[in-house]
Amino acid sequence: MFITDIRKEFYDVVTNQRVALLVAADIDAVCACKILQVLFHCDQVQYTLVPVAGWQDLSTAFLEHKEQFQYFVLLNCGANVDLLEMLQPDDDSVFFICDTHRPVDVVNVYNDSQIKLLIKQDDDLGVPSYDEIFRDDEEDGDSGNESDEGSEPSGKRRRFEEGAVERRIERQRAKREWEGRRREILFDYEQYEYHGTSAAMMLFELAWVLTKDTKDMLWWAVIGLTDQWVHDKITHMKYVTDVATMQRHVSRHNHRNEDEENSLSIDCMRISFEYDLRLTLYQHWSLYESICNSCYTSCHFKLWTLNGQKKLQEFLADMGLPLKQVRQKFHSMDMAIKGNLRDVIEESSNKYGMKDIRVQTFGVHFGFKNRFLASDMVHATAALLESTEKDDSASDNFLKALDSLSRGNLDRLHLGIDLAKKKLMAIQQTVASCICTNLIVSQGPFLYCYLMEGTPDVKLFSKPMALILLCKYLLKAFVHSTRNKRCKLLPLVMAAPKDVEKGSVIVVGIPPESETSDKKNFFGRAFEKAAESTSSRTLHDHFDTSSKIDLSSSNAALQTLRPSLRQTLGGGLLFISSAASVLEALSFCFVISCLNRFFVCCWRM
Amino acid sequence: MFCEKAIELIRELHRMSDGQLPAFNEDGLRQVLQEMEALYDQNQSDVNEAKAEGRSDLIASIKLRHCCLLRNQRCVTAYLYDRLLRIRALRWEYGSVLPANVRFHMCAEEVQWFSQYKKSLASFMRSLGGGEGLDITQDMKPPKSLYIEVRCLKDHGEFEIDDGTVILLKKNSQHFLPRWKCEQLIRQGVLEHVMS
């Protein structure tokens, strides 16, 4: 059931209890976890934090801790499956789920006792009503009784039975109709997956209601929101709306009478609203590198071609920025140039067709040296969370990422920034090589690309978030570089080797690139159906459904998957295009959004 | 040269300046005591000779040996005393049950001394607070809060806290627990205090 008063129904309930926190491995969850930890520290709520990377981890963690804990808080996991069936808990276990994955499973919505959802009800949910899905079956009992009594016929009963048989047939027909409708409703409800309001923002609101919110918590909420935007999980409209909400909080926190006599110390944290450039990590890199490695600019200039490089030089010349300055580290650039850099870049980029080079975001500033934008922090923490250094397990990485968000661990944050730079460069190089060698093939209703094992930096792409980022950039680059109008509207499925020894492969799928997307992804269902039809054993491990792991390293097995996927998607297309005009249907179902649930398929050779 | 074995003993302790207890060097001690015995015997015979025959040229060597004897005595007592101080610190560090590898390094008398020290500390602690007792080995530094956040560095299994609830300490899980229960495990290296 949905919680209406988060303070009374969630916080006051857990305040005097011991809680187990099960946190998924994405940035939003990590930020939400930090906020909740600080609140628990304030009120001395004893808790145990366990990072979980997928459904198996979640089940294991639950089994280990179910004896000792009655209350479980799940962050960014658990809303989109029938949790009670999966975990089989005792009757007194209570789950508080704060999850951005949608659609919320109907059993979770209508369970009153054990599942409490920390989700706003007006969050665009569209949950079907109770009567459409659940139905108390009394008729079965009646017909059962009658058939029992029918073994001892008497005259009166025989007459009664005939009428009863008719009634039973009528009831069964009605029931079949109802079940048919129910299947349709559930199919519509569950076919697309998307994301709702950030978990970090929900928990920040809880902190605000308790008047225990601090600037640190506000900053973490901002990072959680920015993570959703960077990884393309929410629409631009929603992002702008949420930014406005956060902006109100930011101005509330900044409302101090600061003047010459009472100025705050330079070490205090200051969060400010910025209308800043969309160049990733540009303040920690050189401007040139940042332009070359940001998806937006790289795709618009087509920097993998010679022409593109020339255009970039023209662009820089147009702005009057000398190459020597631009290739220098940003904080060593000339002050005169840095002064109105944003406006100059915006003006020039308008001429080159990049209308949204600037985006609304937030920045933080503490100490003399430390300035970060929210997107910088997201990239740094994501790089730490998915770092592929040896000997680092997933939970080690999770804890490192958790640490990096505290202001005292700046060295970890800088390490994260370095890793993020490497990751971005690897992504751009891979995109360039894929486009230049035409690795993207059209498979009918979708585009397909397979990264061979020998590709440089392919280890980085064995992790889901990095692979999705690569997939997104690749699709954007492809759309900008191809002339085929039809291909521009297709979704992209991408495969990369996950584990060289076991021979497993990770496959992800994203919807097509479009301006007006509502970020809904249907690949979860498509992968499920495809796996069923090829009878391959799939390990659906990740909480998002668009990636799956395929254990056969040979292309042959992937080949068998592709036709079945084609069939499924083709079938999906057919179903939808019958509903309305083809274009409308296409733009409705093919919207950009990243994976919501990862399906991990394991095939044996 | 005389007194070298005694300096060896001191150097051994000096090498482990961070409070660790090296193994009890029984051999070294025995050698020093043998040297002292030898010196003493020689001195005794020389003194008798000097007294009997009035040889005053032996007085210098007698004095030398006497100085060596005194030096050996000082070194040996310093060695034993320093070890006792380290053992005393162990009680405050590890609690009343010492880990096996540390106990292995102590000789029998030291073990006896340790148990007597434990007893007297316990009776002192019991007598504090008007007969109620107070554990003064807890909270060596003034604590900032009742509960602290700890991270588990290795699998330790189940851990029971005061109200009977059991916590599973698995690698890489974080817990928010009462400070006094965690201190022992932090010292042993199973948990790590996370400061944010």
UniProtKB/TrEMBL annotation, chain A:
GO-annotated biological processes: DNA replication initiation; double-strand break repair via break-induced replication; mitotic DNA replication preinitiation complex assembly
Q: Where in the cell is it found?
A: Nucleus
Q: What residues form the membrane-spanning segments?
A: 569-595
Family, similarity comment: Belongs to the CDC45 family.
Q: From start to end residue, where is composition biased (Acidic residues)?
A: 134-151
* Pfam families documented for this protein: CDC45 (PF02724)
Q: Which GO terms describe its cellular component?
A: DNA replication preinitiation complex
**What are the alphabetically sorted keywords of the record?**
Cell cycle, DNA replication, Membrane, Nucleus, Transmembrane, Transmembrane helix
Chain positions covered by the region annotation Disordered: 134-163
The species is: Gasterosteus aculeatus aculeatus (three-spined stickleback)
Q: What is this protein called?
A: CDC45 cell division cycle 45 homolog (S. cerevisiae)
Return one GO MF term.
Answer: single-stranded DNA binding
TrEMBL record, chain B:
Transmembrane residues, as ranges? none
- Would I find Nucleus among this entry's keywords? yes
- All residue ranges annotated as the DNA replication complex GINS protein PSF1 C-terminal domain in the record: 144-195
Question: Gene3D superfamilies attached here?
Answer: 1.20.58.1030
* InterPro entries the UniProt entry points to: GINS_A, GINS_bundle-like_dom_sf, GINS_Psf1, PSF1_C
Q: Its biological function?
A: Required for correct functioning of the GINS complex, a complex that plays an essential role in the initiation of DNA replication, and progression of DNA replication forks. GINS complex is a core component of CDC45-MCM-GINS (CMG) helicase, the molecular machine that unwinds template DNA during replication, and around which the replisome is built. Required for correct functioning of the GINS complex, a complex that plays an essential role in the initiation of DNA replication, and progression of DNA replication forks. GINS complex seems to bind preferentially to single-stranded DNA.
Name it: DNA replication complex GINS protein PSF1
